[in-house]
Amino acid sequence: MTITKSTLLGAAVLASLAFAAGAQQTTLTPQRDRITDEAIHADLSGYEHTQGRIQALNDAGRPVRDYHLSKAQCWLDVSFHEYTRNDRSAFPQEALTESEKLIVGMEQGVSPLPTDTPLVNNAARLREDLWQRLGAIHGTPGFECAQQAVACGEVELVHAGNEFNQQQWRHAKPYIQIAEDWVSDAEALSRQCGGAPGVPALLPVDTVLTANVLFEFDRDGRNDIRAYSLQSLDRELARLREEGLTLTGVELVGHADRLQGRGYDYNQGLSERRARTVRDLLVERGIDAGIIQYAYKGDTVQVQQCEGVKPQAALRECLIPNRRVEVRLKVAR
């Protein structure tokens, strides 16, 4: 996302307001000291009070779907989620503080409020492709309808990055799947935005629905596809019917991860076979083979690096987003 002068100004004003309102900020009991009912009750009361401030902003007229109100709520939600899981890191406190910074800004009428998403607790920035898809919605007419999904998708990506730092991909994966759902919903809401009641919104000519079909390590058959990724593809296909869209073309781009035990040429062939497998699955689902094109890029485009991940089994699992076929459904209305 492009950082503008107004964004930096909003961030600076918001930071100063948050500092000035320090008495209103909630400080959680350090994890090591959460050993009494009184300490836990104090923390839960702090969460309840923060939720009440969000509710008061909504009651005063700021809609639930508003980007900043949604972001404050999602920061609060992920903070509370990790607090209840006894997260020993600084994440629950820092996520809660981000929520309260936004709350203070809204209460004080700060404008513009910032749209950046801090990687709290030094969270890893996972899945650059998802960050880019969310960033592309900012500043578009469809953002008006997609604000909540964009805000929560961004927060959930930070949540996943924090989990990745603490316990690697196995713990980050569920939150990445939640983020993927938010991204898909944000794009759908953006597409449907702006039309008069009962009149479908106009679509740009380059509108695309995207899904990633993921494969097991060094595999390319239909039985080697992760089930949840196939469900993601079927969800996007279902949107065609739900939104009254016409499928005008399909582009499949096969990929492999960066593990080159058998070399560059092998990974090129592996990515091609994966693309062909997905092509056959789409034809079985009623897609005209004549509108399907495919390409393959081997291991040249990695969306997740997994630097420092060990042992080998954990690294293979972490790299699964790279073992994908990008399915790009070109649509019109």
Automatic annotation (TrEMBL):
Question: Which organism is the protein's source?
Answer: Pseudoxanthomonas putridarboris
> Superkingdom, according to UniProt?
Bacteria
Enumerate the UniProt keywords alphabetically: Membrane, Signal
Which Pfam families does this entry report, sorted A to Z?
Answer: OmpA
**PROSITE patterns from the entry?**
OMPA_2
* Segments traversing the membrane: none
Domain OmpA-like residues, every copy: 202-333
What's the name of the protein?
OmpA family protein
Q: What CDD domains does the annotation carry?
A: OmpA_C-like
> Residues of the signal sequence?
1-20
Q: Which InterPro entries match?
A: OmpA-like, OmpA-like_sf
